[in-house]
Amino acid sequence: MKATGRMAAGDAVPCELSEDETGIVPTVEWCHRTDKLVGTCGPLDKEHKCDHNHKVECGGGEEAYEKMKNGITKTVHGTYARAIMVNSLCEGLPALTVFVQCT
């Protein structure tokens, strides 16, 4: 299907969802917007179960350094990333990434 002209509000665009998971270089990073470490999937222990929403809150003050250090050394770092995309079936419209998560 080829995209032609302008679309009106409410026009339907045929699309499909796709999911891909790939190996990544494990990296823990600090997100300045949320003040949290991302790239981990839970505490490092014998009964570890991945928590895809795991984030380490840093905060401020003297405790922030210890929280960040423990967030890096005492957690499991994600080694895979999953992406979910909406792929338009109209030629000329780009794919839209709607979700990326460390697994």
Concise structural overview:
With 103 residues, the protein is mainly beta.
Structural write-up:
The protein is mainly beta and 103 residues long. The protein has two domains: 49 residues, no CATH class; 53 residues, no CATH class. Helices cover 11% and strands 39% of the residues. It has one helix and eight strands. The protein has a three-stranded antiparallel sheet with strand order 1-7-8, with no helix packed on it. The radius of gyration is 19 Å and the shape is elongated. The model has no long low-confidence stretch (mean pLDDT 87).
Q: Secondary structure elements and their pairing?
A:
Layout: E1 15-23, E2 29-31, E3 36-38, E4 40-43, E5 56-57, H1 63-73, E6 75-77, E7 80-88, E8 96-102
Antiparallel strand pairs: 1-7, 2-3, 3-5, 4-6, 7-8
